[in-house]
Amino acid sequence: MNVPRHWREQIRRYRLVGSKCTDCGRLSFPNRAVCPKCNSRNNENYQYAGRGKIISFTNINSPPKEHKYNLPYAVALIELMEGPVITAQITDARAEELEIGMEVEMVTRKIMEYNDDGIICYGYKFRPIVEYAHP
Amino acid sequence: MSDNVAVIGVGLSKVGEHWEKSLRSLAIESIWMAFEDSGIDKVDALYVGNMSSGSFVEQEHLGALIADFAGLGPIPAVKVEAACGSGGAAFIEGYIGIKSGMYDYVLVTGVEKMTDVLPSKTTSILANASDRDYEAFHGVSFVALNALVMRRYMHEFNVKREELSIFPVISHKNAPFSKHAMYRKEISLEAVVNSPIIADPLTLMDCAPICDGSASVILCSEKKAREFTDTPILVSGVGLATDTLGVHDRKNITTLSAAVEASKKAYKMAGVTPKDIDIAEIHDAFSIMSALSLEDMGFAKKGQGTKMALEGQHYIGGELPLNLYGGLKARGHPVGATGVYQIGELVSSLRGDGRVDAEIGLAENIGGSGATVSVCVLKRGD
């Protein structure tokens, strides 16, 4: 992972901005140049709220090389409240707590370091929405 | 309409961890076997099915490399890439080369050398078949993508993990017969269910192994094929389709819509329906892919892909025998070579290997988590 490759993703990875088709209103994440629904090339940035629910998840025991320092971690398919589904890690939760339908919210966390170019990459992860009880 | 296309030569090299063999030597091995099987020693073009030689062995430009080292002469030779679906895609390119009348004889070689890098690097390279920036970046391995699909499938259709565990058992059942298979032994359902979890709910034995291998087939027109044999194996229908690269972008996560599209095209071209298919080689890289493939190619209703399997209908003697040479699970899955192995195996079964009397067979090769699917229908010519 080199610097420009990560840098140019910042609007998506740090702010969760995707696109909206200005002709049919279809939402996409990441942004798309061509609308998958109506084929229009007209689109604008769209800011997601960063909330959604888990529609599937898994706990990874055999990670790709650049993620082996993150073990253990869970990844999920998250249906955002606005509609699109995205793939992200789940954080601040134990593996056995995860379930389909669980409500989650976006946080910004470290995704990887120790990759070939030594760049520390941050991005979105999701955590369960919980009522915090003060100790 | 031009003449039918036939397969006249098959070469399937032993799949495994070949520390002593390079990518080029693996390719040459299966090419020589295919030449010997066909009785010819010259072709007009070469299509190489390969997923990731650039990452696995830092070698691109495989068309020229293999044409050069196999002594094929200055023929047109290119690599065709569609992740794990590269072999099937290369085969269809070869088919087009003959069908169009451009070439008289075409060689299709699938080859993958996966064991020159450590397993965690392999996991990373395989993840390149997914959306690098929006799936793999987040640490999703290829196994994990299949696990995400599998959990959703179990949830939507109320299917138990243990029910999907039947598919590796079916593929392994045929493996002792398969001389080129990596694991030539049967396994029990308990072994699959109780094997270590790789990405829940997928276990180790739900997943096809990392390995090296090469397969080659030679194509020509039916007319030319009849100079060699009275019963050529004909390619009666082919279809290739694509879907969204990312699993998260699918309208329906538990449907391989590329398999729906590709199989429809292949059936239509061949003039057959799923009921006419006697045997099939399906892409059982992960148990869940077997269930989805059977459903989406029209062999089972949605959510019922395990039904025939659990009734024993996919063994030899059943309604639709599957993966007669071990499938990806037991033969092995040298990713870019797999689609060519499937065609070669189907040809061997249709020619008659003493186990099944099949007239029409189907091969299904999946690239990525379903973003590319090719389906080929082969028929024994009379």
What would you note in describing this structure?
The complex is a heterodimer of chains A (135) and B (382). With 135 residues, chain A is mainly beta. Chain A contains two helices and eight strands. Chain A has helices at residues 3-7, 10-13, and strands at 17-21, 27-28, 43-47, 51-60, 73-80, 85-90, 103-112, 121-128. The mean pLDDT of chain A is 93. Chain B has two domains: 5-118 and 211-225, 3-Layer(aba) Sandwich (Peroxisomal Thiolase, Chain A, domain 1), CATH 3.40.47; 140-210 and 233-380, Thiolase/Chalcone synthase (Peroxisomal Thiolase, Chain A, domain 1), CATH 3.40.47.10. Chain B is built from 15 helices and eleven strands. In chain B, the strands form two sheets. In chain B, strands 3-2-4-7-1-8-11-10-9 form a nine-stranded mixed sheet, with helices on both faces. In chain B, a hairpin with a 4-residue loop joins strand 10 and strand 11. In chain B, helix 4 packs across helix 15 (338-351). The radius of gyration of chain B is 19 Å and the shape is globular. The interface between A and B is medium-sized, with 33 and 37 residues.
Keywords:
heterodimer; A: 135 residues; mainly beta; OB fold (Dihydrolipoamide Acetyltransferase, E2P); five-stranded antiparallel β-sheet; three-stranded antiparallel β-sheet; 8 strands; globular; B: 382 residues; alpha/beta; Peroxisomal Thiolase, Chain A, domain 1; 2 domains; two-stranded antiparallel ribbon; 15 helices
